[in-house]
Design a protein that fits this description.
By secondary structure, this protein is mainly α. The chain has nine helices and four strands; from the N terminus they run H-H-H-H-H-E-E-H-E-H-E-H-H. The chain has a two-stranded parallel ribbon. A two-stranded parallel sheet has the order 3-4. Helix 7 runs antiparallel to helix 8. The relative contact order is 0.06. The C terminus is likely disordered.
């Protein structure tokens, strides 16, 4: 009986195999049955919608915490004497955890002060953006925007007027970098190149030569897109400059 059943099943299987060898269309999966792509698209649409909704909420919550709590707290800590902040931390530790927390906080503060890390933790930076068009910046006491009238090099001239010796200017404009260095500042290209008195002269010569070529009708092309290597190089240079030039804010 089992052999008969196997024979009954094997005959149509063999027929199907034969037909699939003779007729290629029979061996292909019908495109009309491809409902998996529709399901995948609907799932992707739902996921994208959900991510957008959640992102709106999380972004709002992040801004609320940052601008409503963290930035005011940072300003308060940066503008207060070090001994007052140390006392506040000791008091908070005692109220929340008792004498053990008080001792732990005292030990940590002693380590921070003894190693000089308190200076770095209290360092604050001020950034000023100069442009001839309106620019919206996040809220914060350490971010400033100055709009200048439209005109050739108006923003560059204003930057040079505002800066002091030791200030950092981030720019891809070589003449502005040269003026900043001449005034005693530091200039950093957004692609990570640190301008110096030596290389900025060479960059000026190259720039002037390319301007002459463009003036004669030669297409010299433009800068390429930012690469990940350039972004990392800029971040490393900026970190080194801040560690080297920023003055401690210990009071």
């Amino acid at each position: 009986m089992r052999r008969i059943s196997l024979g009954v099943v094997a005959i149509p299987v063999l027929v199907c195999v034969y037909l699939s060898r003779q007729y290629i269309d029979l061996a292909q999966f019908p495109e009309s049955w491809d409902f998996g792509g529709d399901i995948a698209r609907k799932i992707n649409d739902f996921v994208n919608w959900f991510v957008n909704q959640v992102d709106t909420f999380t972004t709002g919550f992040k801004n609320l915490v940052t601008y409503g709590l963290l930035n005011p707290l940072q300003d308060l800590m940066a503008q207060s004497p070090w001994w007052l902040m140390a006392f506040v931390l000791l008091s908070v530790g005692f109220v929340l955890g008792g004498i053990r927390a008080l001792v732990a906080v005292a030990v940590c503060e002693a380590i921070i002060l003894g190693t000089g890390l308190w200076n770095d933790s209290m360092i604050t930076l001020t950034m000023t953006l100069v442009a001839n068009k309106p620019f919206r910046l996040p809220l914060g006491n350490n971010l400033h925007f100055i709009q200048v009238p439209a005109g050739f090099d108006a923003a560059d001239k204003r930057i040079v007027e505002l800066m002091s010796s030791g200030d950092l200017v981030i720019t891809a404009d070589v003449p502005l970098a040269a003026a900043a260095i001449e005034k005693g500042g530091t200039a950093l290209n957004p692609r990570g190149e640190l301008y110096t008195k030596e290389n900025v002269r060479e960059r000026l010569s190259v720039r002037n030569f390319l301007d002459e070529l463009r003036g004669s009708g030669v297409n010299t092309g433009g800068p390429g897109a930012f690469s990940q290597r350039e972004r990392q190089l800029f971040a490393n240079q900026l970190d080194r400059l801040l560690a080297r030039h920023v003055k401690p804010a210990l009071r």
